[in-house]
Design a protein that fits this description.
The chain is mainly beta. The chain has one domain (44-176). It is 5% helix and 57% strand. The protein has one helix spanning 3-12, and strands spanning 17-28, 31-44, 48-58, 65-74, 77-79, 82-95, 103-112, 117-125, 141-150, 167-176. The longest helix has 10 residues, at 3-12. The radius of gyration is 20 Å and the shape is elongated.
């Protein structure tokens, strides 16, 4: 199992109580690196969850030991008959020879309703963040994203929502972090 397949397997479980322990070894130039991932997820209330994970990679072909850890949560709520969905994740990475723990995080708020479907998030990825398994697209950034969607239901359409008229807007802004990213 490759590290990428391992990362996909971690995300595959979404039962009420999910504990996953996965180990793998990757063959690279006749060297073997051992990888391990543990994922714990617990449903909260009717539709929410809180999860955590730890990853570990070591062995020949890996400089020392690489460890990653994180927590995440998703909390769909109904407020005044409207859906509101706050969510977050926080991850850290450690490697042999580093004295700090670079982190990455994201906080978001989704408003997925019929007339308006809006989303906003802010995330930060330290420049030295390097997960033991998986990847990040870009490090050393602070990023804000948002989208607005207006979907009126014309009287002639009735309850048929297959092809509603829609107005969309999406914005993503990323700014580089300084060399002292904390």
């Amino acid at each position: 199992m490759t590290p990428e397949e391992l990362a996909e397997a971690i995300e595959a479980g979404d039962q009420d109580k999910v504990i996953r322990l996965i180990t793998a070894a990757s063959e690279t130039d006749r060297r073997r690196a051992a990888a391990m991932a543990i994922r714990l997820k617990r449903d909260l209330f009717d539709r929410s969850y809180l999860g955590g994970m730890v990853t570990h990679r070591s062995g020949p072909g890996v400089d020392g030991v690489e460890t990653g850890f994180g927590v995440d949560g998703d909390f769909p709520l109904v407020v005044a008959d409207q859906n509101v969905q706050p969510a977050f994740w926080l991850a850290g990475s450690r490697a042999t020879g580093t004295s700090s723990t670079p982190i990455a995080w994201r906080a978001s708020l989704d408003y997925p309703n019929d007339l308006f479907d809006n989303f906003v998030s802010v995330s930060r990825i330290d420049s030295a963040f390097n997960p033991a398994l998986g990847f990040v697209r870009r490090t050393g950034i602070l990023q804000s994203t948002g989208s607005l969607r207006y979907r009126p239901r014309p009287p002639s359409v009735g309850s048929d929502r297959r092809r509603p008229p829609t107005a969309n807007s999406h914005l993503a802004v990323a700014s580089p972090l300084g060399s002292a990213s904390r």
